[in-house]
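Progress against Task 2.4 (sequence-to-structure conversion) is shown through the following example record, which the project officer requested during the mid-term review.
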Amino acid sequence: MKNLRCIFFYVFFYLWTISFFIVFSPVKLFSRDFAVFLSNIWSGVVIFLTKNILGVNYEIHGKNNLPRNSSILIASNHQSAWETFFFTFLFEDPVFVLKKELRFVPIMSWYFKKLDFIFIDRDKGANSLRIIINAINKLKGAPPKTFIIFPEGTRQLPEKKTSLNPGVFAIKKMIQIPIIPVRHNSGEYWYNKKFFKNPGTIKIEIFPEIKEKNKNDFLKKMESFFYKKT
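Structure tokens generated for the chain above:
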């Protein structure tokens, strides 16, 4: 039954995604607000399919830790593709920091550009950090923006602990933007780069802003959130 659910999901997912982006492919002609509206529709339908076909649901804890009327940087652990479309759904108009390879995805890359996503070369640390800082400085005015970064750098297995990129601390120090850590366990259900998924409830925890001013203390605090036992 679980395997059949996965097959049905991917049939509907690809039919929906391909038809949607073909119909709305002239994104370069759209306003940014309309592109955000379309992005929210697409991600909302994917979440609906995920929940009702795959049986992968979610629950959110700590939404009260999100500051109001302020631009923020969400620093999340990274386990699967699930959190990328879910964060689009959850935060409505987020700006992602993505690896440069995604800049060349047909049609979707046009949406990424319209939505001001930030592309970096992970092999060029200092240069990538400058790109992120300059982009956030440019975009963080009114209205407030939500930026999303994955300090682990790439997707990790649920049980794996890795060193976090210290660049996230440099962003906090140079821009003075609140860093809000988010942890989830999507990899326990949405297996990374595998066809079959496991039904269950993904837990998303939004923690209070990390205010430590020392880099080592800051990173240890973030690690304690990312790798805490549930």
